[in-house]
Design goal:
Layout (H helix, E strand, L loop, with lengths): L1 E5 L4 H12 L3 E6 L7 H10 L4 E4 L5 H10 L3 E6 L6 H6 L1 H21 L4 E7 L23 H15 L3 E7 L1 E3 L18 H10 L5 E4 L11 E2 L1 E3 H17 L4 E5 L5 E2 H12 L5 E4 L14 H7 L7 H15 L2
Parallel strand pairs: 1-2, 1-4, 2-3, 4-5, 5-6, 6-11, 7-10, 8-13
Antiparallel strand pairs: 9-12
This protein binds nicotinamide-adenine-dinucleotide.
């Protein structure tokens, strides 16, 4: 039951590798460690009490990927996480994102086809919806003009998969937060955090002086932006549900993976403060370019067809996020 996991040493990938092992699969990680740390592999090994096989290779390097497919026989499927993920950097360096995010998928698909590996799960994102007209967003909500080159790469990759002969499931993630409760694996991104919960953790740890809430005049419950935050362990489990579904069904599909509920920035700050019993230093600042008012998922399709639903509370996610911050800086 071998499953190749590209980007399996990263944030979502490492949590998914743990869940694959727990479900009896044999994950094989391909990662070039461009945006993570080998400590995630050590963490996976500790949590699972296994020695996970990993190849330090770049997925845009066709010869390197070819050699993995030559060595590893009887591969059931592949989960493709390997990509760059900074929206802000993608605006400055679009070519870097097109080359890595689209290029790696093209190389992977080539070798899957050459080796009769027919099942692929792709890490897509709610960014494909741009700024939606109607909430919650369903899988049928139209793609709007992407807000960034990063979002464009996700739209393009979904399009490539639609036209490919392989069976595929694209999972459109909403906003992953938290970490494994052991504190042994997590997000080692080299980018300066741009997402709310990692920024909150930096303020809590004193790494950052203050949290600026970007705008309190949006058309939302309290004027701050609203997002759908999902615990990364729940998100990781959705990949197992998608894999089981893909192995049984002969089709392509796409699912929103979120909790179905929106939480505002100000509400999120309050949940973090009460879950971790601390006060955060924050103030209201100007809006940030490119932020949309509100987005959250319609998750009916994923619940009914993949039989998956998010279970972990936002309070637990905040405790796990803080625990990771403390472990990461040790
Ligand atoms: N974290 C989020 O908020 C979020 C939201 C929606 C979608 N996604 C998507 O989910 C996937 C995983 O995201 P993440 O948060 O775990 O990011 P991450 O940066 O922690 O993980 C990506 C991993 O891929 C590796 N990688 C990148 N390019 C590679 C290449 N060419 N060859 C081999 N390895 C390569 C990196 O070293 C890293 O370990 C990405 O495709 C991302 O776009 C993430």
């Amino acid at each position: 039951m071998k499953i190749i996991v590209t980007g399996g040493a990263g944030y979502i990938g490492s949590h998914t590798v743990v869940e694959l092992v727990a479900s009896g699969y044999e994950p094989i990680v391909l990662d070039n460690f461009s945006n993570t740390d080998v400590r995630n592999i050590n963490g996976i090994n500790k949590i699972t009490a296994k020695n996970i096989k990993f190849y330090n290779i770049d997925c845009t390097d066709s010869n390197a990927v070819k050699s993995v497919f030559e060595k590893e026989k009887d591969i059931l499927g592949l989960i493709h996480f390997a990509a760059f993920k900074s929206v802000e950097e993608s605006v400055r360096l679009p070519e870097k994102y097109f080359k890595n995010n689209i290029g790696s998928l093209e190389v992977i698909l080539d070798h899957m086809q050459n080796n009769n590996v027919n099942n692929i799960i792709f890490s897509s994102s709610c960014t494909v919806y741009g700024s939606p007209e109607k909430l919650p967003v369903t899988e049928n909500s139209p793609f709007k003009r992407a807000e960034s080159p990063y979002g464009e790469t996700k739209q393009k990759c979904e399009d490539i998969l639609n036209r490919s002969s392989l069976k595929s499931v694209s999972l459109r993630y909403f906003n992953p937060i938290g970490s494994h409760s052991s504190g042994l694996i997590g997000d080692f991104s080299s980018d300066k955090p741009a997402n709310l919960v990692p920024i909150i953790c930096e303020v809590a740890s004193g790494k950052r002086e203050k949290l600026i809430v970007n705008g309190n005049d949006y058309n939302t419950v309290d004027g701050s932006c609203v997002r759908d935050y999902i615990h990364v362990v729940d998100l990781a489990k959705s990949h197992i549900a998608a894999l089981n579904y893909l192995l049984k069904n002969k089709k392509k599909d796409v699912f929103n993976v979120g909790t179905g509920k929106g939480l505002s920035v100000l509400e999120t700050i309050k949940v973090f403060e009460s879950a971790n019993n601390m006060k955060l230093n924050y103030s209201i600042g100007p809006r940030r370019d490119g932020d949309i008012d509100e987005i959250y998922s319609d998750n009916q399709k994923v619940i009914s067809e993949l039989k998956w639903q998010a279970k972990i509370s936002t309070e637990s996610a905040m405790i796990d996020a803080w625990n990771w911050e403390l472990n990461k800086i040790k």
